[in-house]
Write a structure and sequence with these properties.
The chain is an alpha+beta fold. It is built from eleven helices and eight strands.
Length: 195
C-alpha cells in the first residue's frame, strides 16, 4: 500500500503510520510543501481537501496521539449524547504508570484508571478513520459517580437520568457500577429514579 493510499483509507494518519507504509519524513515534507498533505497537528496528517471533519474530530486527534488512552467521563457523555455537557477539554483515561503525553491541541484532561477500571466496558468506534476507544454508556455513567467530586454530582445525576430515559439496559449499568466500585453509591439515586 502506498502511503497516500493509507491516507485515503484512513483520513487521519500519524507520522509513524506513514513511515511504516514506506513514506520517509523528507518525502512527507515535500508533500506538505506541494499541498498534497495537510498537517492537522504535530505528528498527525491528512490528505488535503479530503479530511472529513466530524463533530468528534477532537476525539480522533487525541486517540491518534494518545494511543494507550481511553476517552472517558465528560467527553464520553458528549459522544453518547447523555446530558448537556459540552466539555472544553477531551477527557482521557490512562494507566497510573503510563507517561502523561504532552497533548496541547485539542486541550486534554488526563485521569488515571487502573486494572479492571481501564479495561472493562470499553467500546471501539471508528471516527475519521481512527479507532477510538471510548467507555460504554453504562460505564460512562458509573465513572461519573466515581469522579463525582471532580466533575460534580449534578453531572452524574443528569447522566443517570438520561441513561434511564434512553431505555438502555439496567443490568449493564449495575455491572459497570460494580466494576468501578460505585454500586453502593449509585443505588439510592437509581432507586429514586425507578420508583
Amino acid at each position: 500500500m502506498i502511503p497516500l493510499d493509507l491516507l485515503h483509507s484512513h483520513p487521519v494518519a500519524r507520522t509513524r503510520d506513514l513511515e511504516r507504509a514506506g513514506l520517509s519524513r523528507v518525502a512527507l515534507q515535500r508533500l506538505l510543501h506541494r499541498g498534497v498533505v495537510t498537517r492537522l497537528r504535530r505528528g498527525v496528517y491528512a490528505r488535503s481537501g479530503e479530511a472529513e471533519i466530524t463533530e468528534h474530530h477532537d476525539l480522533a486527534l487525541v486517540a491518534s496521539r494518545v494511543t494507550h488512552g481511553v476517552i472517558c467521563l465528560l467527553s464520553a457523555l458528549r459522544f453518547h449524547q447523555l446530558g448537556t455537557q459540552s466539555p472544553a477539554e477531551v477527557w482521557v483515561a490512562i494507566d497510573p504508570k503510563a507517561r502523561k503525553p504532552r497533548s496541547d491541541v485539542p486541550p486534554t484532561k488526563f485521569v488515571r484508571f487502573s486494572g479492571r477500571a481501564l479495561t472493562a466496558g470499553i467500546d471501539s468506534h471508528l471516527i475519521e478513520g481512527v479507532t477510538v476507544p471510548i467507555t460504554s454508556p453504562a460505564r460512562t455513567v458509573a465513572d461519573c459517580f466515581k469522579y463525582r467530586n471532580k466533575i460534580g454530582l449534578d453531572v452524574a445525576l443528569e447522566a443517570l437520568r438520561e441513561y434511564r430515559r434512553s431505555r438502555r439496559p439496567l443490568d449493564e449499568l449495575l455491572q459497570a457500577a460494580q466494576a468501578v466500585r460505585v454500586a453502593k453509591v449509585m443505588r439510592p439515586y437509581l432507586e429514586a429514579l425507578t420508583t
